[in-house]
Amino acid sequence: METEKQILSFNCGDQVFGLDISYLREIIENQTLTRIPLMPEHIRGVLNLRGNVVPVIDLMARLWGKAAPVSKLSCILVVEFSGEDRKETLGLFVDSVNEVLRLPSENIEHTPDLGARIRTDFMDGIARVDDEFIVLLKANMVLNLEELSRVHESLDLAGNEWGEDEPLEDEQETSALAGPASGDKPADH
After folding, report:
1. Contacts of residue 134, Cβ cutoff 8 Å, sequence gap at least 6
2. Which of 8, 53, 110, 180 could anchor a disulfide with 184, C-beta 3.0 to 4.6 Å?
3. How confident is the model over 44-60, as pLDDT tens digits?
4. CATH classification of the domain holding 135
């Protein structure tokens, strides 16, 4: 049984969220994204991450329907998880990153059924840190399978074969803060 979890805490709107670091691939600075036509507003666009096309979700728009303002502290959390038939990589646009917390299991409560400000299927639980609560998100639930499929189809129509290792033009190193070392792989979820 797990006795402790490592959680990355970050801000989105006036809420502090947490994400199990096993989902986290890296944290990158905010940058110009390529918009995808006919996508919902919470899909900010795609970025070129060392030759890979990564869709970026505006977490504030996804959760509350209002686009997040851009600031000097805004950044993109690149997360990876197991999808239906392949590994999925997404960027989560957030207001700012706080810190990595080591939380004892007894400080993490199951997702409440009532009174949550966000849909509970996005939640992995709620963590108590001192006198405050942090909503823990499930990276694999930020976009549902239908939305992921639409993003993939749009990229294919635009001529970008999803999952290909061919670099895009003007490939650039975008990492501001690295996640696991290049030889380490995030855990499957």
Report:
1. 7, 9, 16, 17, 18, 101, 126, 127
2. 180
3. 999 999 988 899 999 99
4. 2.40.50.180
